[in-house]
Inverse folding.
């Protein structure tokens, strides 16, 4: 993931593990306190373990980076903490990989951001993903178009967020919205046809502009980035107070119920934290869920096994065995050496349990003749080779593994 | 550092950021609480941000890894927290790289551990280091040899730890230790000549055994690992309750007052945490101090600069520019693209401030002819090249940077 971020021109940023609790209540409201690990330090400061990384990164930007040329592309990989009921894909300490794009709101800027999220997950090995692109300005325009009061909006938002459209329908009917209107709103919230929305909102200039941007983003994703798995979806209403305009999500079907892998969009925190307002966007990928997805998809996780195990066949051979070990390490081989004097038989057995492909045995005869005995643990074949050929031999043997 | 750990046959381990507070008070006594970030969670558990990583790793070992073949080689890289007065090289959140070697106490095991600490720092670029090797069993034997009471030992330990030998001398005199004995103890605590210690402690079998191991460790470090910067030093008395037998430290003169980069030794925590007792050793490297050392030594830190900046010279060129950008990224180039439509002149200026060595300009003529204009930002030279040669050209240009 780090490499992918770097290829997209992003730079890594690290922020502290705890922050003043106000940083997060200012962003997300007092309601978030129930989910936070808060504590007072010995100086009486109200601190909290960070529940996410966007607020800390933007605080850092406002304090230290406002004079940097724009756009600023910052990525992070860090642990976060939420006092939540632990379950599959939801841990109290969890890891997020994410980024913030500060200083642009062009369609190409937004498309690149979404393409980055998708590419991160694809490059790391996730096979099946589904992306959805929404827009909160358009959702607000729909609410106005159907004359829903602020109170009514608050009531139906959680239902839209859960995609509970049956429940939404009966709630809208209970609110007194005519059947025809209810049915139209439900269609517009679920349609993937942008022209239906343009038609419905043709008098709302701001909404039309956002729909035009949305269209351009989808075009660029498909034509320039080759990403066709994003569809229009106006029922994405994540954090209506916090996000504005574009929002997007990526889900992995492999995850089942908790299937969201990534969420993001445009937001406006800089001004709230005392900086000069400018367009900002970002996303966060749930790292633990990414691992769960890969596990479910039977991804073959790479391991870092030891390449070589060096066995001194008697006590006097320990110093030259260590010296040889150190030489192999300097050449970059992952090399272990018997440190418990277990004897040749047990040492070979140990190497076997550890799936180490090659053992090197060093006895007095080999030492005298400047040779070593190299044992291929897969074939069991032992060959005596001159010490000066050992690097070459190891490289050849490991290439064939 | 990760690579060096892997070449030594160590595997990475990660533990949670917070633990039950008892984990650390059991290891280090109630006194440590003043330095801890402790808090009660919403379930009333007494938790603490980890102040170090040895106790968490050994807890993990006892819970999960006791059945693994020995020796077990585990390394970590993690953040720790101490409520300390912040100063240069001492932060309230700081990073440690370290490891635990579980299940061997052979001289070769101990020598390899020390060699690993030294190699980690050397490979990462630290130039000047001084290592010291002590032994707490020998120190205790010295105290017994001079008939110092438990109370007297407690009084002089902090002075030895600070290497405040003048103050130590007057304190010993005040305790009524004869001048000759005081002078002899001071000599033995500071000598680098192991035979002086062997002579003084010739009746203490346990101490003699430890001195023999110490000698072997120093020999192996020098002959097998090529490390000659460690000297004998019995005034290393770090954590007398916690460590046992071998202890070692590595200092960087570049750091000034807070010059310790690494500390470690043999200890016995497994039994305390309810596991089956076995020899354990480990060390921790202060990562922030390592960075400070490298800064003081004028180390040239590697950067990850963007390789290429793609500039669409007009709005219609944005989609093909994004497509080209994405191709370059897939080839592994760190590629950025103008996302704010700043115009060619400003875009080139931006690339200059970011020290990006190559710009690619894409206009309608280039697009029509399947070419791009490649600008070398160091020479200012622009060349028009076919799009299918771009990867080859970029590789050549970047090789010459």
């Amino acid at each position: 993931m780090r490499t992918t971020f770097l290829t997209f021109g992003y730079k890594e940023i690290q922020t502290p593990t705890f922050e003043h609790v106000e940083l997060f209540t200012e962003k997300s409201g007092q309601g978030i306190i129930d989910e936070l690990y808060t504590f007072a330090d010995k100086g009486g400061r109200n601190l909290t373990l960070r529940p996410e990384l966007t607020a800390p990164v933007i605080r850092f930007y406002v304090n230290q980076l406002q004079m940097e040329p724009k756009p600023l592309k910052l990525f992070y990989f860090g642990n976060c903490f939420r006092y939540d009921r632990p379950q599959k894909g939801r841990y109290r300490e969890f890891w997020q990989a994410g980024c913030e794009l500060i200083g642009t709101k062009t369609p190409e800027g937004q498309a690149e951001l979404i393409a980055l999220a998708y590419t991160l997950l694809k490059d790391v090995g996730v096979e099946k993903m589904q992306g959805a692109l929404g827009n909160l300005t358009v959702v607000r325009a729909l609410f106005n178009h159907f004359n829903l009061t602020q109170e009514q909006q608050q009531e139906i938002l959680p239902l839209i967020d859960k995609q509970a459209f049956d429940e939404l329908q009966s709630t809208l009917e209970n609110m007194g919205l005519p059947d025809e209107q209810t049915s139209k709103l439900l269609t517009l919230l679920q349609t993937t046809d942008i022209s239906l929305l343009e038609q419905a909102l043709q008098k709302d200039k701001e909404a039309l502009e956002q729909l035009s941007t949305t269209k351009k983003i989808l075009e660029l994703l498909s034509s320039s980035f080759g990403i066709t798995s994003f569809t229009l979806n106006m029922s994405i209403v994540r954090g209506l107070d916090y996000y504005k305009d574009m929002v997007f999500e990526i889900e992995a079907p492999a995850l089942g119920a908790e299937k969201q892998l990534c969420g993001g969009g445009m937001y406006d925190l800089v001004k709230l934290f005392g900086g000069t307002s400018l367009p900002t966007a970002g996303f966060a990928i749930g790292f633990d869920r990414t691992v769960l997805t890969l596990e479910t998809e039977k991804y073959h996780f790479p391991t870092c096994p030891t390449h070589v195990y060096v066995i001194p066949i008697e006590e006097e051979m320990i110093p030259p065995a260590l010296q040889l070990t150190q030489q192999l390490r300097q050449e970059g081989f992952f090399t272990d050496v018997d440190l418990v004097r277990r004897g040749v038989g047990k040492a070979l057995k140990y190497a076997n349990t550890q799936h180490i492909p090659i053992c090197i045995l060093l006895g007095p005869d080999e030492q005298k003749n400047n040779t070593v005995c190299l044992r291929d643990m897969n074939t069991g074949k032992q060959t005596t080779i001159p010490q000066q050929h050992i690097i070459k031999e190891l490289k050849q043997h490991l290439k064939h593994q």
Summary: The mean pLDDT of chain B is 94. The radius of gyration of chain B is 29 Å. Chain B has two domains: 2-296, 308-399. The CA atoms of residues 365 and 371 of chain B lie 8 Å apart.
